Amino acid sequence: MPVVIPLVALAMGTFVAFWYDAPRAGHRFVTDLGMRTGLRVDHDTADLVSRRGRRRMRAIAMGFLIGALAGTVPGLVVGGLGQEIVWWVAGAAAGSGAGPLVVHVRDIARITVEPGPRAAVLRPRRLLDFLTPFELGAPYLGLLLPAWALVVVLVSGQAEPVGSAGTAWVVTGAALAVVVTVVAVAARRFVLHIAPPSRSTIRLTWEDAMRGVALRDIGATAVGTSWALGGLAAFQVAVTWPVELPLPLVGATVLIFGAATGLLAALVVNAEGRQGPTRRFLRLYDDNAAVTGGPP
Amino acid sequence: MIIEVDTRSPVPPYEQVRAQIARYVAGGTLTDGTRLPTVRQLAGDLGLATNTVARAYRELEHAGIVVSRGRHGTFVTDRATADGAPGTEADAAARAFVDAARRHGLDRAGAVALVERAWPTARAG
User: Fold this and answer.
1) N vs C: which end of chain A shows fewer Cβ within 10 Å?
2) A229-270 per-position pLDDT tens digit
3) Which pLDDT band, with edges at 50, 70 and 90, does A20 fall under?
4) Could you report the per-residue pLDDT of A37-52, keeping only the tens digit for each?
5) Among B2, B41, B47, whose Cβ lies nearest the Cβ of A124?
6) Do B3 and A121 touch (CB under 8 A)?
């Protein structure tokens, strides 16, 4: 119980910091994305992207707060420092990913284009036009840890009967991780296909750039949430399992495996997302120079 | 590769879509085997009704420029890029000749006779 108060305070503090940083984050969204992609931009488009960036940051802040607060509830029910922290992290990760996804979809749905010229790319869109193969597979990678914890539960089922509290929390965490991954994969396909009608090529290219950001947000959310939930399961297995089984070894393996997998996935998703792969979607346009104003 | 549609134009949107794709194929920008976006994707991106894009694709298919392979998608056909296929340079030249023949009051038989007479003497290649 005592750890809940700092966790709630941390959630509130993070929310306030993100919320008030949103206007600056909106400007950064335009300049960062512009620099990374090299896209041409006009005043109207810069204004629109800035507003979308600001709303994205506020959605992250709100999602983080709601997710973290929701995550403290199971932690309170279960009790124990490890449980409270991992549920808090899982909730915050899920919330901070769901928020911008909702805002992205709502922003697109709200865009209406008056009669006149519209532009579109005459190419089928694929996820690989926006994500690296690693980013494409990252959500599935995040499932490795919960899956491993489930295997350990099944292997050691004699010592810890199915239906016991320990088993229930491992299975719950792993099942939630699967649900999060399935939702993330479906959300990526949905975001890939939705598009607002664009008046110009400039607007079209920026919509694709923002689509790339949304797709990477979804991937990072899935990895972060699954990693936390897998960490929960691993923590359960490693700490509370009967000691007569070689579970300290199994638990250590799970923790190390989870830390390595999650850290690697999170780092690559974030680091690569900030660099070259944001330009991947330019392959949809035959003449990069025409949309970026310079050579690729 | 960008496709543009102006909904204020007197040319119907389906015809604008059809003509641009045909032009891309005739110009060699879209080569045989190239997959086109789905009707739903293109309609959504352009803010048009699905039926509008579907009609453009249907007309392109009737002209032999594209072929629909069910759930695999719509592809540019190899016939479309062959000499004389709709949308190619030879096709455009034939249409221009027919227009000229009509302007000069020739009927179909007269126009064909002109071609027959010119064929042996015209320079090949």
Assistant:
1) N
2) 776 666 665 555 554 556 666 666 667 666 666 666 666 666
3) very high
4) 888 888 888 998 999 9
5) B41
6) yes
From chain A, pick out residues whose CB is under 8 angstroms from the CB of B37. 120-125
Its pTM surpasses 0.80: no
Q: Do A204 and B38 touch (CB under 8 A)?
A: no
Interchain CB distance below 8 Å, A123 and B37:
yes
Closest-CA residue of A relative to B2 is A121
Contact A204, A198 (CB under 8 A): yes
B6·A116 Cβ contact <8 A: yes
Burial B6-19 (b: 16+ CB within 10 A, else e): ebeeeeebbebbbe
pLDDT in tens, B46-102: 989 999 999 999 999 988 889 988 888 899 987 655 555 666 667 777 888 888 888
Closest Cα in chain A to B72:
A124
Spell out a b/e string for A272-284, using b for 16 or more CB atoms within 10 Å of the CB, else e. bbeeebbbbbbeb
Paired strand residues for B3? A120
Contacts of A125 in chain B (CB under 8 A): 37, 41
Q: Are the Cβ atoms of B46 and A125 closer than 8 angstroms?
A: no
How is residue A266 written in tokens? 């999170």
Tell me the CA end-to-end span of chain B in Å, nearest whole number. 32
Q: How far is B21 from chain A (nearest CA, A)?
A: 9
- Specify the pLDDT at position A229: 79
CA distance B82 to chain A (A): 21
| Contact residues, A window 127-186, toward B, CB-based 8 Å cutoff | none
* Chain A, chain B: beta-carbon pairs less than 8 Å apart: 74
